[in-house]
């Protein structure tokens, strides 16, 4: 393994155990060697070495199946590499999430991973903090300073996408918000507004519709925007589920995407390439974030002393252009007879 990656055996051990003191390029080389050799750690050897198997719980309640699928892929891969036992618990927002959290604390889990929307549940975070259970937040729009977190810059990503749509020539750009209870939703709206301001375009609340990050809410939001007397020529949805719903609504109304209307999404889940036309979207490295989350949490748990600073890691996003965007159609004016 060490020879294949061109590093020392100690460096390989640090990567597998999720320790932070490894350069990103070196970590990538080791992970590539692990994948190429189909390596899996020997639990007995790790136990003798004193590492022991950790039990980490993942609480999920995500309305986007695409996001959750990508998230689980990365989580399972990194857990296998780090010899971590994963405990999956589905939560319904409300009293059930507290019941599940209390049960996990009572069972003595070593750490907890919280993807959205549970990553912003104040009640859950308070319970875990009081019990001193190491916790990592994934894709949080505004993580507390005292908790480990990995995400992207949601505001900058939305700004980049809106600028792209503006560069195509669109000036009436609709926006579908995500769940109002998630800070990432507000950050994406801020990015949209900031990009409009760079072109001197006044923010129009009538071009913003509320969604919940679900396909169903995207259908309702798209209908609302396209029912306007002066509908937008482009719609930017806060995730791929709602963008896919917007494409469906456009097709139902006899509109061609992208000739009649541009539709763009956010996340770059499998859904983005499972519909026609394929979505132009922001690639949020969901699987990479979940891998990093497990590695960061394992390192925090196995560290005998507190870290000098809490790890808040920002990963890069990418604008992926596909077939759902184009310049606005120039229609001839109707001349009264």
UniProtKB/TrEMBL annotation:
Give UniProt keywords alphabetically: DNA-binding, Transcription, Transcription regulation
Tagged with keyword Secreted: no
Among InterPro entries, the record links this protein to: HTH_LacI, LacI/GalR-like_sensor, Lambda_DNA-bd_dom_sf, Peripla_BP_I
PROSITE patterns the record matches = HTH_LACI_2
SUPFAM superfamilies in the cross-refs: lambda repressor-like DNA-binding domains, Periplasmic binding protein-like I
Its domain of life reads Bacteria
Q: Where is the HTH lacI-type domain?
A: 1-50
The protein here is known as LacI family transcriptional regulator
- List the source organism: Sphingomonas corticis
């Amino acid at each position: 393994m060490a020879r294949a990656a061109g590093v020392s055996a100690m460096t390989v051990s640090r990567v597998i155990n999720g320790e932070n003191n490894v350069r990103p390029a070196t970590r990538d080389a080791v992970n590539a060697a692990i994948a190429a050799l189909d390596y899996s750690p020997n639990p007995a050897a790790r136990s003798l070495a004193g590492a022991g198997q950790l039990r980490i719980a993942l609480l999920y309640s995500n309305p986007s199946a695409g996001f959750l699928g990508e998230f689980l892929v990365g989580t399972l891969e990194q857990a296998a590499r780090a010899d971590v036992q994963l405990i999956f618990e589905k939560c319904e927002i409300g009293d059930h999430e507290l019941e599940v959290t209390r049960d996990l604390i009572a069972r003595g889990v070593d750490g907890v991973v919280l993807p959205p929307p549970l990553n912003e549940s104040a009640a859950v975070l308070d319970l875990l903090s009081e019990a001193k259970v190491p916790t990592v937040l994934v894709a949080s729009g505004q993580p507390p300073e005292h908790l480990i977190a990995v995400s992207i810059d949601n505001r900058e990503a939305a700004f980049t996408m809106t600028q792209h749509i503006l560069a195509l020539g669109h000036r009436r750009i609709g926006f579908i918000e995500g769940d109002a209870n998630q800070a990432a939703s507000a950050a994406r709206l801020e990015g949209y507004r900031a990009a409009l301001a760079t072109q001197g375009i006044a923010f129009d609340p009538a071009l913003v519709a509320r969604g919940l990050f679900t396909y169903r809410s995207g259908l309702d939001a798209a209908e609302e925007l396209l029912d306007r007397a002066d509908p937008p020529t482009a719609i930017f949805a806060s995730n791929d589920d709602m963008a896919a719903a917007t494409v469906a609504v456009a097709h139902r109304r006899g509109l061609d995407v992208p000739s009649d209307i541009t539709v763009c999404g956010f996340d770059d889940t499998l859904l983005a390439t499972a519909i026609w036309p394929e979505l132009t979207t922001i690639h949020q490295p969901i699987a990479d974030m979940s891998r990093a989350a497990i590695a960061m949490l394992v390192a925090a748990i196995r560290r005998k002393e507190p870290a000098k600073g809490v790890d808040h890691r920002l990963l890069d996003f990418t604008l992926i252009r596909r077939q759902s965007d184009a310049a606005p159609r120039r229609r001839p004016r109707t001349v009264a007879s």
